[in-house]
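Protein Record: Sequence and Backbone Structure Tokens
======================================================
Tokens: labelled as protein backbone structure tokens, with as many entries as the chain has residues.
Task: work out the structure tokens from the sequence, keeping to the layout shown below.
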Amino acid sequence: MKVSHVDTNSSEIPNAVKFLSDSSGLEGGKDVTNGKVNKKIVRTLTPTSEQLASLKLKEGKNTVIFTFSTAMLGKQQVDARIFLWRWDARIVISDVDGTITRSDLLGQVMPLVGMDWSQSGVAHLFSAIKENGYQLLFLSARAISQYFPLGRLFNIKQDGKALPDGPVVISPDGLFPSLFREVVRRAPHEFKIACLEDIKALFPADRNPFYAGFGNRDTDEFSYLKVGIPKGKIFIINPKGEIVVNRRVDTKSYLSLHALVHGMFPTMLSSEQEDFNSWNYWKLPPLAIDV
């Protein structure tokens, strides 16, 4: 798989940025009181297929650059990444706080004072999954303003292994709506399910791109079940760092799960039946079907 970066000296960048930053349309509305038609600009976070095609994306990771100017700060530049995956990609989803880090709160605070607060073995496990041909997607219902350590996520190093690259999908809502949803309503799954359903819709309707999911809350498990991930491929890490599958502790840590990685996540080129699917390994009861 090739990884490409947009050349910052290329003349194509202004057009690419313009297409993405000008993702807006006109929506007409008629004022019944005076008979006038008022037009308003509606901004969207989603570029059209034509706009994406104009960027000439390559398979893997692509870097795009947004430039803008303000009266106070002058010209500013923000980098972003667009991932182009094959139609038959198998995606492994991972929550961030409490799943990659050891706790929701301290996982954000400790890196600021130079302490590694990541789960032991997570970099080795996720790297092995990536090497077997799977794509990693990191998901959080928190707002971007809560993610001051976001850039440190891929700086995690464990015995020379770093987290594999992958898109980080976070809530586009502001700080207070995201906090209200997570802390007051305790419903972070609402964003996660909606987000994952949108991603799922990008793939052929007759296949589910989501292969497995890692999380640390019941709401994570609920989200993954809603998008079609089987129970045997949903891994919930509890406060002790143990891996729970179907409400049962079967492995003690990410390190233990790493020993099973080739059976649990067989290489994409392998056509053999999986040894660690829901029936063969986890012994989950079959679905009850009314006849």
In short: DSSP finds nine helices and 13 strands in the chain.
